[in-house]
Write a structure and sequence with these properties.
11 strands, alpha+beta, single chain, 11-stranded mixed β-sheet, globular
C-alpha cells in the first residue's frame, strides 16, 4: 500500500514543483496611470496624459494610450528589494531636464521591473519621481 501511494503521489509532486518554478516572479495585468509631465519610455517621448502599462510576456512592458492603442514596448529585467513596495508605483528618473520611466513596482512585491533603456542612461543621483495610479 505504501509503495502504491509513493508511485501515485511522487510524480504529481514533481509536476506541481515544476509549475511553481516556471511561474514568473511578477506579472502585471494592467496598470492605469495619469502622468503629469512629459516622459520617455524606451526611445520615445510622450506628453503628459493617461496611459496604461501591460506586461504581455515576462521580459517586455507595453505602454498603451488612453484609447488602448499600443504606443511602445521595452524589454525589462527583474530588480529586487529587501522591503516590499508599499504600493504600486512607477519610478521616473531625471536626466538632462527630462523624466524617463525606469522602474515599475507592484504593491507588496519584493521584485520590480527595470526598463533596459532606462538602465543605460546617466541619471541625476539621488532623485526620482513617483506618480499615482488612476486605479489600483
Amino acid at each position: 500500500m505504501k509503495s502504491f501511494i509513493v508511485r501515485i503521489f511522487a510524480p504529481m509532486l514533481f509536476v506541481v514543483m515544476g509549475m511553481a518554478m516556471a511561474a514568473p516572479a511578477q506579472t502585471i495585468s494592467t496598470i492605469k496611470v495619469s502622468i503629469p509631465f512629459e516622459f520617455s519610455f524606451g526611445d520615445k517621448t510622450f506628453p503628459a496624459g493617461n496611459y496604461a502599462l501591460v506586461q504581455p510576456s515576462e521580459h517586455f512592458l507595453v505602454l498603451r494610450g488612453s484609447e488602448g492603442n499600443s504606443l511602445a514596448e521595452v524589454p525589462t529585467q527583474f530588480v529586487e528589494s529587501f522591503r516590499p513596495a508599499d504600493g504600486t508605483k512607477l519610478k521616473f528618473y531625471p536626466s538632462n531636464g527630462k523624466y524617463t520611466l525606469a522602474e515599475v513596482w507592484l504593491r507588496e512585491s519584493y521584485s520590480g521591473l527595470e526598463l533596459y533603456k532606462a538602465k543605460e542612461q546617466n541619471f541625476e543621483k539621488g532623485h526620482s519621481v513617483q506618480v499615482s495610479l488612476i486605479h489600483e
